[in-house]
Amino acid sequence: MCARTSLNEKRILTFSAMLASGFAAGGLVLGLLVGSLVIVFDGVYSLVSLLLTLLSLAVSKFIERPSKRQFQFGKSVLEPIVIATKGIVILAIVSYSLYSAVISVMSGGREVDTSIATLFGVVNVLGCGYAWWHIAKKSKRFSSGLIEAETKQWQMDTLLSVAVTLGFIIAWFVSLSPFAQLAVYADPMMMILMSFYFIKVPFDMLRGALREMLMMKPTEEICQAVDQEVSALKHHVAQQFEVAAVTKVGRELRVKLDVHPVGQQLQVADLEKTRRILKDRLSRLSLDLNLIMNIAH
């Protein structure tokens, strides 16, 4: 990873941690005061987001430190481990919140002060939306797996806040209607609906991280970029190259090439030139290239 990407990563994670701490405190206190499952969930999610962001920040700094003795193949695998941890924790929170909401519905619902809850929801939408927009904007040129996970985290929090606010507005209208007795079910029903919707985000995070840890085939975009640049090598070097394997592990792109020598001799200069060309051409992927070349017989 280049120095500018690393610096951008640290700045974004620090910003995210500071903002998440405010939302966590506000959500937990207000949620307990008004007795809302949804607001408590929002506060717990923000608190966990803060802890996971601090974990991401610590791992980001640790990866930058040289440590060849303990991690002889690099520390890139730590990144998908962190992302998988985030996915598992968020998945657990959503699952528990779904369980609590179902129990609440079965026991007769929950009465909530919708006016205070709606005001909190509006503040949350504005704050989380700004965080999502700011991080997405700052990560356009220099991004990483940790930054992308952070963006998804705030995206989920923003959509959650929008759903909460709309739900409380609907609950307020219901409380003024002839069906006022049903208003107590608004809070747990919102939690149930949101749980089914938001469970996809941590699941996708977990699935992507596991694919990297198992060194499975990366996205089609990465594979196409590698195939395209390897095919273009014939215009620059005399040797013939064939892609044997491609995988992405954290911020590292691992490419294995089979070299088919042209003629009786294989020039070392051609191999070095190949390495330089691929490193330059694939730099647009914002990944550290780990290139292995085997002589094919």
Kindly report the CATH topology of the largest domain.
Alpha-lytic protease prodomain-like
Q: Radius of gyration in whole Å, from Cα?
A: 24 Å
Low-confidence segments, ≥5 residues, pLDDT <50? none
By CATH, the architecture of the largest domain is named: Up-down Bundle
Overview of the structural elements:
The chain has nine helices and three strands, in the order H-H-H-H-H-H-H-H-E-E-H-E. A three-stranded mixed beta sheet has the order 1-2-3, covered by helices on one side. It folds into two domains: 3-213, Alpha-lytic protease prodomain-like (Up-down Bundle); 220-295, GMP Synthetase, Chain A, domain 3, CATH 3.30.300. It has 297 residues and is mainly α. The radius of gyration is 24 Å and the shape is elongated. Helices cover 67% and strands 9% of the residues. Helix 3 (78-106) runs antiparallel to helix 6 (186-198). The protein has helices at residues 3-34, 37-64, 78-106, 114-138, 145-175, 186-198, 200-213, 220-231, 268-281; strands at residues 240-249, 252-260, 288-295.
Q: Could you write a compact summary of the structure shown?
A:
The chain has helices at about 5-35, 35-65, 80-105, 115-140, 145-175, 185-200, 200-215, 220-230, 270-280; strands at about 240-250, 250-260, 290-295.
Features:
Alpha-lytic protease prodomain-like; elongated; 9% strand; 297 residues; 9 helices; GMP Synthetase, Chain A, domain 3; mainly alpha
Q: Which SSEs are present, and which pair or pack?
A:
Elements: H1 3-34, H2 37-64, H3 78-106, H4 114-138, H5 145-175, H6 186-198, H7 200-213, H8 220-231, E1 240-249, E2 252-260, H9 268-281, E3 288-295
